[in-house]
């Protein structure tokens, strides 16, 4: 799911490049992408700390555990590189590699079946993914358009787990100096997807006689942004985030490889600072609302989950630093 969201974002941002130049090249493409999303820059490292949170879970449709997550953190590293551009500069091929380490520390856990309270050991998870993306910049009905296709392979420390694919097409409906509106669709070539086709829509609007702009991308973000200080930028709003990793289980009820998917809505503030055109850092914080946590057998639809839990809102803070190979000194 995470790679699907990233792929969609690349499409939207690429469209901005297409709409601004008649012959957009790979450098323009890359510059537009990395401006908004740190994890699409050449190298990116992030660390996130989430505050304590109570949870209540179900297993195989029955009440299972009630407990507290005392500490939850994530470390992420990403590498992205366009490695081929056609002579016309309209076809771009990009490779991406991602790694995530995620850990949980628990407080007291109450089990509904045994009616006993116990402690749970620290849990650690490793996740990696590699993707190959092809993006073609063209025109349709006289308007800029982008066609995108991605093949994604992911897994954990034990093995490769899944191969997924998705494709999208997006059209620029309106283009003015202050406003860009796009519309499209994403097709998911993944048997575990509940909805095989997802609509895409975005609006970027710069307010007249103001330093503020609005950035809305369905289904991922709604932000208000402005420049702050000479080399900084502040953002206020909400972003949809997805997380996943694989578990190799060998218990009485579950045997095999399972995938945990978590849907989060992060609301708060972000400050970015550009040390040089190639090195950019950020800090963000606010409230994290966990909408859904589900565990499914590998390849199954998330509606066929075997475990789920509800989690209270929690505070979070995230730090990151990126290196942008395409930044101009």
Give an overview of the whole structure.
By secondary structure, the protein is mainly beta. The chain has two helices and 17 strands. The protein has a 17-stranded antiparallel β-sheet that branches. Helix 1 crosses helix 2 (26-36). The two termini are 35 Å apart.
Q: Give the strand tally.
A: 17
Number of domains: 1
Fraction of helical residues: under 10%
Shape: globular
Which structural class is indicated by helix and strand composition? Answer: mainly beta
**What's the pLDDT, averaged over the residues?**
85
User: How many individual helices?
Assistant: 2
| N-C termini distance | 35 Å
Q: Tell me about the largest β-sheet.
A: 17 strands, antiparallel
Uncertain ranges = 11-30
- The portion of residues forming beta strands comes to over 45%
- Calculate Rg over CA atoms: 21 Å
Order of helices and strands: HHEEEEEEEEEEEEEEEEE
Features of this protein?
329 residues; single chain; 17-stranded antiparallel sheet; mainly beta
How do you describe this structure in short?
The protein has 329 residues and is mostly beta strands. The protein is built from two helices and 17 strands. Helix 1 (2-20) crosses helix 2 (26-36).
Topology:
Layout (H helix, E strand, L loop, with lengths): L1 H19 L5 H11 L6 E8 L2 E7 L2 E24 L5 E21 L4 E4 L3 E18 L2 E13 L4 E16 L3 E11 L7 E10 L5 E7 L2 E8 L3 E19 L4 E22 L2 E19 L9 E5 L2 E10 L6
Antiparallel strand pairs: 1-3, 1-17, 2-3, 2-16, 3-4, 4-5, 4-6, 6-7, 7-8, 8-9, 9-10, 10-11, 11-12, 12-13, 13-14, 14-15, 15-16, 15-17
Helix pairs in contact: 1-2
